[in-house]
Amino acid sequence: MNTLPPSPRCPTQLRVQRARRIGVLRTMADAHFINADRATEYANGCNATNNPDGAASWQRMSGHYRQEAETFRQEADKLERLQ
After folding, report:
1. How open is the CA angle 80-74-76, to the nearest 5 degrees?
2. Between 11-48 and 52-82, two packed helices, what is the crossing angle to 10 degrees?
3. What's the pLDDT band for 4 if we cut at 50, 70, 90?
4. Computed from CA positions of residues 24, 68, 7, 82, in that sequence, does the dihedral angle turn out positive or negative?
5. Is the pTM of this model over 0.85?
6. Which of 63, 11, 7, 5 is nearest to 37 (CA)?
7. Nearest Cα to 20, choosing from 31, 32, 12?
8. Fewer CB within 10 Å of terminal CB in the chain, N or C?
9. Pairwise CA distance, residues 72 & 77, whole Å
10. SS3 breakdown of the chain: % helix, strand, coil, rounded to 5?
């Protein structure tokens, strides 16, 4: 039988859970921003070697990483406002 863990009832537990979640979200956002910068560097390398298809591909991936990072950061900001 599958049962869900009991939800925390203590306000302190809720704050601790939120703080952990905020930390995870911020870490994931940072990692995505780093990957976005790396993808942008690859795109610049492709441009330098006259490879426009490769540059476009890396630029799209960079944009996707940045979009995900912004989503994580916004969710962390929302949770911080609840603290």
Report:
1. 35
2. 160
3. low
4. positive
5. no
6. 63
7. 12
8. N
9. 9
10. 85, 0, 15
